[in-house]
Amino acid sequence: MSGRNWDRVPIDAQSVDAPLSLSAIFLVVTVGSDHAALSKVASALSALDDLAKNVGFRDLSGRLSCIAGIGADLWARLSPDGRPRELKTFAPVNGPVHSAPSTPGDLLFHIRAERADMCFEFERILLDRLGGSVTVVDEVTGFRYFDARDLLGFVDGTANPTGLDLPASALVGDEDADFAGGSYVVVQKYLHDLNAWAETPTHLQEEIIGRTKIDNVEIDDDDKPRKSHKSLATIEDDAGNEYDILRDNMPFGRPGQKEFGTYFIGYTRYLWVIEKMLQRMYVGEPPGAYDRLLDFSTPHTGTTFFAPTRPMLQKLAEGA
Ligand code: HEM
């Protein structure tokens, strides 16, 4: 392997390897266009680690973590001289029936803990520090739903890479050495039509997802004309190599408002992998045979970020 020995780069993208948590907050903000706003944001970013320690130390078993992701426009303001090779704003995806919109966002904070109060406290103090320099454009509090199921009732996250496969799938490597250890992050907030889903027979739901509902076993649909979500989201190159991503989706909702959702968040070493998944889901494979999960799930946001390593984040913040 050339130059840096990639296998020995400690896992970073801040805390991408934090375990699946009971609670999470996904906070997306835009940053004011003046220099004062930028420097306030930079100082909050450089103090992020200390804030996680201050709140996290109050209950170490709460395993509080926060990953900050930076959008392409803000990246250009913080570091005009260089950016991760693939970083750009989320490109809308238009299929024959369903479309994925692109929505604004300069910063993403993915806050996770075993306790909802720790996520809340972290977010409260963070927003206090950011003050008028940012505008909150989306804020979602997610929760673990029984045995890691989404609100459609399926276990979500099974095929995630683990062990050494995790950094190999989620973290940039030698191919973009200046940004090695960072990660591209794509988020989409989906709302579900749970009534229509409930009227869909279980065997059809299983065909749509590509796994059985109760015991979470994969269904082989290689010979079927209409592929499942699982198969459409499986990306292989011509040589048969599979490209995984790391997902940390969380259910959220307000039954009183009939709001039932899945917050999709994917971390990837190569942005093109998630873009290809979205193409296959929305346009279909073959074209027209789109992901039927979308007949029951509508994306309301779509934003791309880059989560740099801790030292990279510090450098960016100090530079500003
Ligand atoms: C697999 C749910 C959106 C990528 C799965 C599985 C479920 C699921 C239940 C099967 C179990 C598992 O391996 O986790 C959902 C829901 C979504 C959603 C409810 C939103 C409404 C997305 C999006 C992407 C994606 C937008 C990518 C852009 C994947 C991948 C797999 C997967 C890569 C694993 C495929 C494999 O078996 O290798 N999803 N998903 N999902 N999903 Fe999604």
TrEMBL record:
A Pfam family that the UniProt record links to this protein: Dyp_perox_N
Enzyme class, spelled out: oxidoreductase
Cofactor: heme b
Sequence ranges assigned to domain Dyp-type peroxidase N-terminal in this UniProt record: 18-144
EC numbers, comma separated: 1.11.1.-
Residues in Dyp-type peroxidase C-terminal domain copies: 147-309
Record key words, sorted: Iron, Metal-binding, Oxidoreductase, Peroxidase
SUPFAM superfamilies noted in UniProt: Dimeric alpha+beta barrel
Taxonomy, superkingdom: Bacteria
Alphabetized GO MF terms: peroxidase activity
NCBIfam families per record: Dyp_perox_fam
Membership in a protein family: Belongs to the DyP-type peroxidase family.
Record's protein name: Dyp-type peroxidase
Organism expressing this protein natively: Mesorhizobium album
